[in-house]
Amino acid sequence: MSIKQIDATTLKQWIEQDEALVIDVREPAEYASENIAEATLIPLATISLSALPEANHARKLVLHCRSGKRSQFACEQLLQEDASLEIYNLDDGILGWIACGYPVKTGS
Q: Using an 8 Å Cβ cutoff, are 87 and 63 in contact?
């Protein structure tokens, strides 16, 4: 299976329809400063199939970072563990999400 690229508009629709499991692969400090509310933090250094939340098979697996480079690498790592995964990388990461005007949770 290959990594599919999606845009923020598609991800927003999937989240609204509860079709996406969103994984943020940035560092904890980055996540704390701003994040997509529905995203689960699993830093790139710790990404693995065993680190993913359970029940991920029913929803599309979407990874994101700041701009899309680290999450692309994380997608490749997961595919090395299971080549049959259907996995998506968010084009332009959280920066693309913000550019579309979609909400983020911000730290204090």
A: yes
Cβ–Cβ under 8 Å, residues 12 and 100: yes
Mean pLDDT confidence for 18-25 = 96
Which H or E element spans position 88? strand 87-90
Q: Which two tokens stand for residue 71?
A: 């999450």
Residues 13 and 32: their CA atoms lie apart, in Å, by: 24
Proportion of the chain above pLDDT 70, given as a percent: 94
Q: What is the pLDDT of residue 2?
A: 80
Residue 33 pLDDT more than 90? yes
Cα gap 39→42, rounded to integer Å = 9
pTM for this model (two decimals)? 0.94
Q: Are 61 and 52 in contact (CB under 8 A)?
A: yes
Handedness of CA 48, 84, 54, 96 (dihedral sign): positive
| Of residues 40, 36, 41, 43, the one with CA closest to residue 11 | 36
